[in-house]
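I would love for you to help me understand the pair of lines that follows before we discuss the fold together.
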Amino acid sequence: MAKEQPHLVKHSENADPRESTAADSERPTSISALKEQAAGLRRAQVMANLAHVVTKPDGSFETWSETLPKLIGVPPSEIVTSTRRWLDLIHPEDRARFRSTALEARAKKSRAEIEYRLWRKDGTWVYVRQVMEPIPGKPDAQGRRRWFNTLQDISELVRAQYGTRRLNRVYAVLSGINGAIARIRERQQLFQEACRIAIEEGQFVMAWIGLVDQKASIVDPVASAGNVGAFFETAPMAVLEMKPGGHGVAGRVVRTRQPVVSNDVKNDPQSLMRKELDERGINSLAVLPLIVEDKVVGTLALYAADPGFFDEHEMRLLTELARDVSFALDRIEKARKLDYVSFYDSLTGLPNRPLFHERLRVQLADAEAKKTRLAVMVLDIERFKTINDTLGRQAGDGLLAEVAKRLKQGGHPASWHARLGGDHFAIVAPAITTEEALAKRNERRLQQIFGSPFAVLDHQLRLSARLGIALYPQDGKDSDTLLQNAEAALKSAKATGERSLFYTPDMTARTPEKLSLESKLREALEKDQFVLHYQPKVDLHTRGMVGLEALIRWQQPELGLTPPTKFIPLLEETGLILEVGAWALRRAALDHRKWSDSGLKPPKIAVNVSAIQLRRRDFVKTVEQAIAQAGAPGAIDLEITESVVMEDVLSSITRLHELRRLGVSVAIDDFGTGYSSLAYLARLPAETLKIDRSFVKAMDQDPTARTLVATIISLAHSLRLKVVAEGVETEQQAEILRELQCDQMQGYLFGKPLPAEALAKLLQTNL
């Protein structure tokens, strides 16, 4: 059957040739116009990748367009001429659907549309959209009709849609893993979650993360998801080429520090494990390096079923993903180091005070559930200060480390210890039966620990210690009360010369001296005897003044200037800190306004906030009123110690956000001495971290302290926080801080706290 050229126009066989009209004279022009229209239609079909076929009622091809052979990649002489033969060109997986669509269209005598894959002679598959439309007219004897079929090559569209879906999968993985990075602080949990997201959101066949084991020179898989099975039993993981299996993809990534991609693993000459990959239906893979501090520490591997999956767009996103995971690893490692210091005493390796309270809370809940008793004991080394002052700090540190070692050796299996600070150690003993049994056990333990001399710097030192003991539940039902009462018992033991004492209520009775001091503090507030002194904060490089810290003093008529350590604890105990704290905020704002009105340019003043103040619901309002009354917006910042923030993290975050809306900046004071702040640091609306003076003081002699300071600065900068070092007293300390890229410093090296009048003169010299 010859094909019909679309530009030819046929007369109906039933037309009467004798019939004519006046238009006959114009026929040549009309035929020319039709030919021109047909040529335009043909060009349009070519441009749109369109073709058409007219089928007879029996399914054979009646006519077709010139573009049909090109669509299926054959010369015009080899074109198929029937629907039956056309079916042979359709992808086997699409034939049943095509046949069903065609039969349904014929039955309903209605238009139908279908997309399917069509085999070309050149060995490729094209995607085709076919529209079937019944041609009006009389059906044949069996009720069948002629059909007009429009076909369009939609391969480019399908590939674009597939590419979009593929990119969306990678975007979903990137988004999901970044969300995991934001909320997860534990490395293994992050790795496992990243692999899970790659499988569930990215629809990868397999995903795994490995870490470089430098000693073994291998990449060690630590997390995986998907169709892994026994994949790692034969996978080459060696990093060094000379080791067996050293030519594996993971090892190549570590050596070259570059991603390795294979988009056709079955035919890639460098591809290994073809059998294992084929069994899992894997056709593409990408392995990316995880780089921390310019060193490859691990690899991220993704395996896809789709051939050619990892193109330029996907790899750009996956490279960004690898960088994000690397950043998270860096942050987690730094956080781990800081967490250790936050939870454990670096000198003795024992839990510190914050971890002591956390563990004790858990143990108290267990004791309450089991209805058992528990003892909290505080141990103090006799004459430790004398030894420390006489033989030096190194000797004192060695002695504390040795005491901690003996505490851990030979103790009751269920007991545990902590260092509370200085020469004070805590001992927690669960499942107490009687006070007499505990007292005898304590005597034996004290003899074991202090019975033999301690060898410190060629000295043989014989020591003794005293114990204060508080019992749960009779002496307290929470960790703070028990520790407070154990310390009260220790104080009584030292005062009476007893080796150990159990707590009794009279030990914490308020003394007449304490009552007198409280009365004087109330009078001081009424008579305006409190004053503020201001200590400058300077830029590390220019040494120019960039801030002030307000420090409260008590000007007693009979005793003169009294430092805060003498009265702040009692202010907090009595609740007077609320009134005194509000006064300090107002006074600082007023001084700032006064200096500004005098033509000076004072920097912002940081005012310290206590835990009691921050817990108050009206604290934000108090700050707002202080600023408003002084008429000094932008004058005040707040400094809040790390431990205070962590007492109620969620409430602290809420209040600090409210303060930020007032234009008040927040600094976290004494950073590194608190508890668990690392898990929330990124969420705190703070602008500055202040490194505790104890670390600054020790860093020029203690490598551990210097490493800690460096880690704090690096972590703070990664979170876009400024860092202020407190207690800088020597040029050597300042130089170390400059090398570690600290931002600001504060300490006696630059100036002692000054009263407002003296500070005004200092500001005058800075104009």
